[in-house]
Amino acid sequence: MAGTDTRGPTAVMRSAAKIIDIHANRTAVLNQKFSPALLSTRENIMKLATMIRTFFEDYLGWMVQYNIVSREHLLAAKAHPEEHRDLLVRIGGYSVYFVEISPALQDEIIARTEQEF
Questions:
Q1: What is the C-alpha to C-alpha distance for residues 78 and 38, in angstroms, rounded to an integer?
Q2: Which of 13, 51, 84, 111 is paired with 6 by a 20 to 30 Å CA distance?
Q3: What is the widest separation between alpha-carbon atoms in the chain?
Q4: CA distances (Å), 24 to each of 28, 62, 112, 114, in order?
Q5: Mean pLDDT of 15-21
Q6: Is 94 helix (H, G, I), strand (E, B) or coil?
Q7: 103 contact partners, CB below 8 Å, separation of at least 6
Q8: How many Å apart are CA 42 and CA 73, to the nearest integer?
Q9: C-alpha span between 27 and 33 (Å, rounded)
């Protein structure tokens, strides 16, 4: 739930892993949002890679997907869709153009916590 994931991306993954039942539901999707600036260093890219590997190997995660876009960019796309027709976002296992989804779903994506390391 947007706004409840306040202790960082690894805490989100540990929490999500607690509800994953690999025998009953192999379709659990974990969505996370990062600022592009967060992944501007090799060190942070390696942190993300390690975090993803841990999620799958240690916590038996099934699917994690990222939107690496700033809140400001999403707000600009909502306000001026004609200037952001190429902005793709991940939602529940698929990609969609941000400007083509409903305003309510746009707001949900904007409200997602922008994770930090």
A1: 22
A2: 84
A3: 44
A4: 10, 12, 27, 30
A5: 72
A6: strand
A7: 78
A8: 23
A9: 19
**pLDDT class for 92, splitting at 50, 70, 90?**
confident
Phi/psi of residue 52, nearest 5 degrees: -65, -45
What is the residue type of 93? G
Sequence-separated contacts (24+) of 94-101 with Cβ below 8 Å: 98/74
Q: For residue 96, what are the β-bridge partners?
A: 89
Structure tokens at 83: 């200037």
- In the numeric block, the tokens 């409903």 are attached to 102
Predicted TM-score (pTM) above 0.90: no
- Distance, in Å, from the CA atom of 107 to the CA atom of 117, rounded to the nearest integer, reads 24
Pull the structure tokens for residue 16.
Answer: 């999500």
Residue type for 45, please? I
